[in-house]
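Final report, Chapter 2: Outcomes

The project's central promise was a pipeline that accepts a single protein chain and returns its three-dimensional structure in a standardized token representation, suitable for archiving and comparison. That pipeline is now operational. To close this chapter, we reproduce one record exactly as it appears in the project archive, with the input sequence first and the structure output second.
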Amino acid sequence: MSRRPNLLLTLLVTLPAFLLAGCPEAGRFIPALNTVWVDLVNDTSFPVDPNIKFDDDSDWLASLVPAESLDTGLLESGQSVEFDFDCDELGLILSDEAEQIAFFFLSYFADDTRTLKRGDEYDCGDVIEFRFVGDAEDFGVIVSVNGRVVD
């Protein structure tokens, strides 16, 4: 008889027990529980500067002035990139006037997205997607969490 099913059963029983008991490092054993993925997708015909701002805190001061900018560079048409954050590194995130660079360096700007806060709009283990759509005056950002549009 194989011992593997017993090992699997033991892991399935003990790991949730550690998590429920408040073991602060237990989430690190399962990276998906302690990670937030951020996907940026350029579905436009031109390069886009996503201008993603974030903070590890989610209080009102951080909402006014996020401390960090995500270094994405320009996203070319059709390009997508993925970033992953430890959950405690991402308290809030938004796209702050994304810029689309069109003909002859003419730029179009999208409105700011809603500020997404951990615990309100997303949680650890979630996927946040910023999808840049439309061209010129129709340029904008669609934000979703786990495939559900939030902005």
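Archive annotation: Confidence is low (pLDDT under 50) at residues 1-5, 23-29.
This record, like all others produced under the grant, will remain available to the consortium after the project formally closes.
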